[in-house]
Every structure is written in C-alpha cells, then in structure tokens.
Amino acid sequence: MTVRWDIFCTVVDNFGDIGVTWRLARQLVAEHGVAVRLWVDDLRAFERLCPEIDPALSEQWQQGVQVRHWPKDWLPVEAADVVIAAFACQLPSAYMDAMAERQVTPLWMNLDYLSAEDWVIGCHGLPSVKYKHVQKYFFFPGFQEGTGGLLREAGLLERRRQFQQDGAAQQVFLRGLGVEREPGARLISLFAYENAGLASWFDTMATDTRPWHVLVPEGRILGDVERWAGIDGLGAGASYRRGALTVQVLPFVRQDEYDHLLWCCDFNAVRGEDSFVRAQWAGRPLLWHIYQQEEDVHLEKLEAFLKLYTEGLSEPAEKAISGLWRTWNAGQDMAEHWKAACEKDRELAEHARSWCLEQASRADLATALVKFYRNWI
C-alpha cells in the first residue's frame, strides 16, 4: 500500500517555508511514490510560487500533491503514516489526537531549519517530546555527514550543467523575462530582505570599469533599490542605469524559473533558506542574506556556515567573501569587500563549483527522510 505523508507548513518568511515544503512534497511524490498531503495556512503566499494554486479552495491537487488549506477551525481528519511538522510548527491538537488514536503509530518528525552549527549533527534523528504514546523526532537538514542533507531533485545538477553550457538557451530564457544582456556585462541576481548596505554596493558597481547588470525579482529589497535610483514605484520590467550598472526589476517567478535565473547569473544574492540552497546548486559564487532572529542568533548560523564554506580558499579570497557576507548582513558599507571579492572572482567561482559537487555527493533530504522512515518501521 502507498505510504501516506502529511506535511504541515505555517508561512513565516513569506516564501522560504512554503518554498521548502512545496519542493519536498513534489519530490516525495515524483521520486519516492508516496502520497503527500501538504497543509498550508497561507495559500496567497503559495500562489506566488505556484500560480495554478486557487487560494479560495480548501482542497486541490497540484503536480501530484494534495494541497489542503490549514484552517484555524480544524476539521477532524485521519492522521497519515508519516507526519512532518515543518520548522517546528505546532500541529492542531485534534490532529495530534488522531495520531494517538491510530492502530499503527505514525512517524512524527520535526523538520527543522537548515544550519551548519556543530550541535546539529548530535541532535539529528534524536527523539524529542512525546504526545501520549506518539514519539516525535528531530530531523535536521545540513551540510555535513550525520545530518539530513539538502533538497536536491534527481538529475538537477546535470540539467544545470546542460543549461549553463547552452548560451542560446540562456538567451531565450532571459529574453522571456525581458532581459537583454549587454556584451561583456556580468549578471547578478538579487533577492534579499531590506538592506541599508545596498546603496554602497550599487555605487561601487556603477563606478566600475566593466559593466554590471543586476536582476531584481519583485520583493522586499525593491524599496532600497528605489531609494538608490531616486525613483518611486519601480515595477516588473522597469530598468535604471547609472554609470556601469544597469538594474532591472523582474516579475516574481515560479521555482523552476528561479533556478534558471540563478543558473544564468555570474553571482547570486539570495535570502532565507530555499533560495540559499538553490544558489548553491547553481555552482556560482553567492551572497546570503540570512533571516534575522532575536538576540542576533542568526549571526551564529552565518558564521558556522562561513567556517564550512570557506575551507580551502586562499586567505585573501576567504577574507573577501567572509567580509562581504558580514557587511551585507550588518547593512554596512560593501565597497571594500566587493572590490576584494571581484579581484578573486575566478577562485571564488571555482570554489563554488567544488562546494556544489561536494554537497551533491551526499544523499538528498527527501531520500534521507524516506530512509529514516524505512529504518524506523
């Protein structure tokens, strides 16, 4: 019989939470043959990633996944064989009772946030709290052996390789977004939270001797772009040029198209968790704007990742990319570290490809979850 999975997602970071769970749900169905019910409390945010979603429907099917609206007034349903609470969300109490009432106890997992911190390895797979006789387990994505790995669909890196070697395919894709790349211009994608450091970064590129073209999908950073340009109301399709820098606003694209955008660019600035992982699979240098947490806990996560990611770089390249990430996340002046990173662009590009291959040598997150379930039963 087909194993039934329930994945619960509360949308906190606009697109990161639903982005991760939507990718996971699709991959479980497509590659592992399980039945997935994805419970989402905010279908409007989901609609941005999957335009086929009808926010007015409480139940619908998308790409083999049963998508259910998670209502405030919960209606009783039978619990699944595997239950995933994404990012420590609290399950409805009636659903927890349904888990306890099952004849065969379900596997209940908390799929936690991605982190490179050392303690994650020691906690991954451990039992957590119990509800009645139903045991919950920690499941941590991660970058090292002993964690749950990263989301990666079968054949992803080969599809990326073929696309990056096909200049004509890239040109067709970019033109579909209204992008005409100036000969010799370096392409950057920019998806980030609000950031006071943006003006210094843009100023540095604008005064460079080589051309830069920054592609900005609609999002929270757009207000800072408008202030730098001195223009209100920049929408999809709008562009602005100052010196060597062209800035162009793109429409918010669905996940598969966003992958192609990352693959086209020479450098990718990303935010949160979902786009952060996808930028690593692009095999290009990146800049991460981590989700801010109380008491600056997020900065510990940033440093933990930098420690792993920069291993093997020369000292100048390590200082350049680490300094760039730190100043960006502090909203500080970017000029010095951006110039230093540009001087080491070849080394950083090769390092990004090597890091991608290293991460791809481990099992992907969906496969690790399925294996955990099979071992558990």
From TrEMBL:
Glycosyltransferase as a keyword of this entry, yes or no, is yes
Could you tell me the keywords of this UniProt record? Elongation factor, Glycosyltransferase, Protein biosynthesis, Transferase
Catalytically driven reaction(s) = dTDP-beta-L-rhamnose + L-arginyl-[protein] = N(omega)-(alpha-L-rhamnosyl)-L-arginyl-[protein] + dTDP + H(+)
| InterPro entries attached to this UniProt entry | EarP (IPR016633)
- Among its keywords, does the record have Glycosyltransferase? yes
- Do you know which Pfam families this protein is assigned to? EarP (PF10093)
Q: Name one GO molecular function term.
A: translation elongation factor activity
Which family does the record claim for this protein? Belongs to the glycosyltransferase 104 family.
Which purpose does this protein serve, as stated in its record?
Protein-arginine rhamnosyltransferase that catalyzes the transfer of a single rhamnose to elongation factor P (EF-P) on 'Lys-32', a modification required for EF-P-dependent rescue of polyproline stalled ribosomes.
Task: Show the NCBIfam families listed in the entry.
Answer: efp_Arg_rhamno
What name has this protein been given in UniProt? Protein-arginine rhamnosyltransferase
Report the source organism.
Pseudomonas canavaninivorans
